[in-house]
């Protein structure tokens, strides 16, 4: 009896599976023009043969951290290869520019690389995921990368959420930061202003002046939210804006609290409720099975990423 069943297709790597999925399992490498084909896999390449990607998400490199990494590389070598792609007569860095910069400071002439043939969209995806996994991006850099992937390569917010293992509300909240004036965005880049503070002053009549005041007085996020509400024009009749009802639970009227509930709920796959008041509040996570409780405990203890 003949089996006419067609062989099952190998599933195409999808979004949300990390760098290994994005890089794929290809065993071939295309040579740069004028460069003879070399065996696949990791190989050594001169640091002068590589150039940074002009649109890579990471813009801010901490000098002290680079010096520390360079000292480590000088002592132990570069353990993780840099991912590059052919680019004319050179190789363009896809992931690992920070390691490349540190290797130069450590006076290395050659470093291990993995050469891949990648499209512009794939290059942006890999660079974004690699930086997020290492927590190397500030909020503005991350938001700008999302905007490029949406505007230039047609990604949706849902697809990006799967790609980087974040909730859709996280993507949306970061994109809102790009509505801030450039000087305020720069304060986030230099870590003088946190993402929470920056979100609180979006839509304020004078966000730059408010940001300066927050930094000068060392205000908390909640204090910043209060000042931002007070700075907005009051509606006719003296009615209070939503979320400013004084003491008690402001959850129902606070868009940031609601967004945070959604973000945590998306991350855990469970119902999350935040009850916040002037003197603090409670965080409630509802579960249905012991397996769900075990998952929450593992997340809180750091046993699961």
Automatic annotation (TrEMBL):
Pfam families: HTH_ParB, ParB_C, ParB_N. Residues 1-37, 226-252 are annotated as: Disordered. It comes from the Bacteria. Residues 43-132 form the ParB-like N-terminal domain. Keywords: Chromosome partition, DNA-binding. Coiled coil: none annotated. Belongs to the ParB family. NCBIfam families: parB_part. Involved in chromosome partition. Localize to both poles of the predivisional cell following completion of DNA replication. Binds to the DNA origin of replication. This is ParB/RepB/Spo0J family partition protein.
